[in-house]
Design a protein that fits this description.
Distance between the termini: 41 Å
Structural class: mainly beta
CATH superfamily of the largest domain: TonB-dependent receptor, beta-barrel domain
Largest sheet: 22 strands, antiparallel, barrel
Pfam families: Plug, STN, TonB_dep_Rec_b-barrel
Subcellular location: Cell outer membrane
Main location: membrane
Shape: globular
Number of helices: 9
GO molecular function: siderophore uptake transmembrane transporter activity; signaling receptor activity
Radius of gyration: 27 Å
Organism: Pseudomonas chlororaphis
CATH architecture of the largest domain: Beta Barrel
CATH class of the largest domain: Mainly Beta
Amino acid sequence: MIVHFHHFSSARPALGLRHAVRVALLSSALGVVALPCLAQAAETGAASLSHSYNIPGGALSDVLNRFAREAGITLSMTPAQLQGRQSAGLKGEYSTDQALGQLLSGSGLEAGSQDGSSYVLRALPETGALSLPTTDIKGFALGNALGSMEGYNATHSQIATKTSTALLETSQSVSVVTREQMDDQGSQTVSQTMRYTPGVLTNPYGATHRYDYVAMRGFNDGSVDNIYLDGLKSMGDSGTYSTMQIDPYFLERVDILKGPSSVLYGRSSPGGLVALTSKKPLFEPYHQIQATVGTQGQRGMGFDFSGPVDDDKRIAYRLTGLADRSDTQFDHNKEKRYALAPTLSIDFTDDTSLTLQAYLQHDPDGSYHSGMPADGALHQRNGQRISENFFEGEPGIDRYKRDQQSFGYQFEHRFNDVFTARQNFRYLDSKVKLDQVYDYGWTTPTSNELNRYYTGGDEKLHAFIVDNMLQAEFLTGATKHTVLMGADYQRRKTVVDWTSGSVAPINAFDPVYGNSAITYYDPVSYLRRLEQTGVYLQDLIEMDQWRFSLGLRQDWVETSDENRLAEASRPVGTEINDKRTKLTGRAGALYLFDNGLAPYISYSESFNPNSYADSAGNPLAPTDGTQWELGLKYQPPGTDDLYTASLFRIDQENLATKLPQENFYRAVGAVRSQGLELEAHLQLNDNLKLLGNYTFTDIEYSKSMISTLSTATDIIENKGNSPTQAPRHMASLWADYRFDSGSLDGLRLGGGVRYVGYSWADAENTMKVPSYTLFDASIGYDLGKVGLKGVDVRLNANNLTNESYIASCASLSFCYMGEERNVAATVSYQF
């Protein structure tokens, strides 16, 4: 395995980096030592003259996928070649060539052999069939790629195993949001793309668009540490204002994995993670431009150009850009964004490819981010309620400016039919400047004025992450193994300069701005570092109709926090260091019935370093999470429809908490979350698509957190209470219908309803946040039906009835206004 660490190493690499290199090389060396015996095992399985098959009929993609697994071959094609084609299946004794001939009979396709175990589909020359372009995935190989995405239905995902695995055969709950779903629903942020996904609360902090908060299975730690891009952690610093955000216009799909996932990714939240896949270069010409206008002064333009660079179609580019701005629903606040993503893919050979990526984003205005007291937001105060447009800051002070740039690559080389090596790398540079005036409670028990405080931030973040993988696919008798060995390393440095102070109060019901004088407190300056090295091993086992997943990972994590200013408690240069090692695992079993049913059970673990210190200044132990999940998946034979039901229980230990009058934390809390999730993705016919889901989450403190009521300082026992921002019930339904005949040909209609049940406004469970129901709608038309080829129009309305609601409360002091009605019209032109 060629690890290519010279792309990012310095002349004097750190000890941790040298250790990571040694670990990666050791993993590669172990794989090379095993090469002769594993390759022999693979050849033995592939050399059999005939096998007995019993594969039911259905979609050609599904039938070929199963055949490739059972025959132990690699079968490459494009998704477009298989689109809309069916197969009668296969039953009886066949050689590989005979079986392929039978399966492809009448399809206009044939399979050409490269070496007896690798095959490529191609059009039959004598049929005169049109050659279909490779617009989705070049060199697509069943069992070793993401698979096709028709409408809202994805067939495969890499999020749970870091290898392409059929969703039906994954022993953990995985949801996928496709590009078509994002467009139909008018998603403006990554969080909004998941509004119709079970187990996910996408707006715990209300109408803010500054960060992509995602609370999963009841867990919301106020960070965005569970977002990944192209297989790598986003690397923002959740303890600061520096968090990476990607605009959904640059994405091809969003995969959501529920539950702990540290065995492949290291530090992570027990609720799950979100994997973003960016748009990749296409090897056929593609050009699209679009313009959007909407309510709240929204207006924007985007372009997406792609195609081959050379005549042999070995090199392809993609250039995507966006300029967008809006006034937002909050007074005196704006959003502005300018982003550009150049990408280049190079296929050096059929076995070696490299994709170079960059993402440049400038956010001059980062919108609003704050909450209101429950008394006034949830309930009337002095006969009045705080407006959902109210801004408690100062127009002349408040700002949020973010500049982020990332550069990376994805390298892959296939040595032979057994071994494939991959290396993913990304470097991130971010600068954030913040000035914010926010409220913190009423000045007196009966007044209409809110206390106001000021926070200022000037942050610089530098980070890189690399993941090395060696994948081996081989047979031992009738059992197929997909073994993944990996070593990853990540490093992050954040310089933060924070200021704070107090500002004159403001009347929440009749605000008057201009009192911008700030009484400053002592500034704070820190240098924060994080370094993580991990090695992992995973074996995916296919034994007849059984699917087993086994994984183990060892992590070494080091964090430090160095004071850069003199303080009485911490002199200049004082540094808090924390070094941790952690072993995590995962195991799963699934049985695949011929009728499309697939029951499964799995166990998984997670950990996450704590950024808080105890009374002695020592870092607290990491939070630990464990999950048991029992589920049933069903995919009707011959379709890509998928139904999933999952029961789960997650236990999290070592939660940190503190009393208001203290400046240190205690790791005393524990939380237990259990529940049920139901999900359905249906393509009822060529015209109608449906999404439906339901979530029941029973989450409570299994060990008391230290807490206080707003009117007292007594310690409250909250064992058995539910955390805030964790609704007990959630449900949604979305339908999209496309007319393809008659006078309505080209028209698209979509509509959805989202229900979020009540949650608690405080950890003592003394006040509820009411449930709310929101309606969304979309209408589109293909103007190519009236002669304007390539032109499409779409109108999206979210919260169609303009429901006024509180999204959630983090405490009685901070409740977050829900997003008001938003309507946007988009015109796109593809040429």
